[in-house]
Write a structure and sequence with these properties.
This protein is an alpha/beta fold. It has helices at 4-8, 24-32, 43-53, 118-123, 176-179, 194-211, 222-225, 234-249, and strands at residues 70-71, 77-78, 82-84, 105-110, 141-143, 149-151, 180-185, 220-221. The protein is built from eight helices and eight strands. A hairpin with a 5-residue loop joins strand 5 (141-143) and strand 6 (149-151). The chain is globular and about 50 Å long. The model is unreliable at 1-19 (pLDDT under 50). The chain binds zinc ion.
Length: 251
C-alpha cells in the first residue's frame, strides 16, 4: 500500500480534481481503503484523502450552532472533516438491542495511542476478525488530535468498546455495547488540542440531536462503567473539556 501521493501524483491538487474525473489511481486508492471503487473522487474519497493529507481540519467554529454533520438513516456521518472507513462487519453486532434500534447513550474514551493512529486502527479492522489473534475491540468514531473525524461503524451497530467482564451496564439503559455509541478521543488523555475539542463538539452535537439522547447519558465515561480496569477518558477531559462539549450540545 503506497502513500496517497503515490496514487494521486500529478492529479490530486485541492480543488482541481473534479468528482467526474475517473482514474485508475483513484480506484486503487479506494480499493485499498475499502471505499466504493468507482474511480471518482467524490465526497467520501475526498474526505479520506484530506484526512490522510492533513487538510480540511474542523473548519466550523463551535459558536456556530448548526448541525453541520449529517447522519444518514443507516447511521453514517457525513460532513466537513468527516471520513468514513468501514471496518469489517465481523467486528461488531449488526444492530443495537434498543427498542427502536437507536443509540441511547454516548460513551467517551481515549485510545491510549499517539495522535495520527486512527487510520491504522481502522485499517487493522478491515479484515474478518480472527478470534484469539485480533484484539476484540471496536468503536464507532475516532476523533484525532488535529480535529479530523473518522467513522468506522454505523451508529446503529453495537460496537465492543465497553464490554469487559468487569463492565457495569449504563444505569437505566443497559450494557454499553448493545445500547450506546463509543467515541474514542485519540491520545493518552493528558492533552486534548483545541481542534480535537471542537471536533468533539460537532460530533456530540450531531449524535445527540439526531437520536435525542438525554443530557445525563451524553457523556458516560468508560471509567464509570469499568472502574477497576479503565481510567478513560480521564480527569483532564472531564474537567476541562467535557463541560464545554456538553454545553455545545445543549445538554
Ligand atoms: Zn475506553
Amino acid at each position: 500500500m503506497g502513500s496517497p501521493d503515490d496514487y494521486n501524483a500529478g492529479e490530486w491538487e485541492a480543488g482541481r480534481l473534479k468528482p467526474s474525473h475517473v482514474s485508475e489511481l483513484t480506484k486503487r486508492f479506494q480499493q485499498d481503503h475499502e471505499l466504493p471503487a468507482d474511480g471518482k473522487c467524490g465526497p467520501t474519497t475526498r474526505a479520506v484523502l484530506d484526512l490522510l493529507r492533513g487538510k480540511d481540519r474542523n473548519p466550523v467554529p463551535p459558536t456556530i450552532k448548526t448541525p453541520d454533520i449529517k447522519i444518514s438513516a443507516d447511521g453514517w456521518m457525513s460532513g466537513s472533516g468527516v471520513a468514513v472507513m468501514p471496518i469489517h462487519a465481523s467486528w461488531y453486532y449488526a444492530k443495537l438491542s434498543t427498542v427502536d434500534g437507536n443509540p441511547k447513550a454516548i460513551v467517551a474514551h481515549y485510545t491510549a495511542t499517539k495522535h495520527g493512529t486512527a487510520i491504522n486502527m481502522a485499517r487493522n479492522r478491515g479484515h474478518k476478525l480472527v478470534k484469539g489473534v485480533d484484539r476484540e475491540a471496536s468503536w464507532h468514531v475516532s476523533i484525532e488530535g488535529d480535529g479530523s473525524i473518522l467513522q468506522m461503524a454505523p451508529l446503529l451497530a453495537g460496537c465492543w468498546h465497553a464490554g469487559g467482564k468487569t463492565s457495569k451496564p449504563i444505569p437505566g439503559v443497559g450494557k454499553a455495547n448493545y445500547t450506546s455509541v463509543g467515541i474514542e478521543l485519540v491520545g493518552y488523555g493528558d492533552f486534548f488540542p483545541e481542534p480535537q475539542v471542537l471536533a468533539a463538539c460537532r460530533v456530540w452535537y450531531a449524535i445527540r440531536s439526531r437520536y435525542g439522547i438525554p443530557a445525563d447519558l451524553c457523556m458516560i465515561t468508560h471509567q464509570e462503567l469499568d472502574p477497576t480496569r479503565k481510567a478513560d477518558p480521564g480527569k483532564v477531559w472531564m474537567t476541562q473539556h467535557a463541560p464545554r462539549v456538553l454545553t455545545y450540545t445543549g445538554a
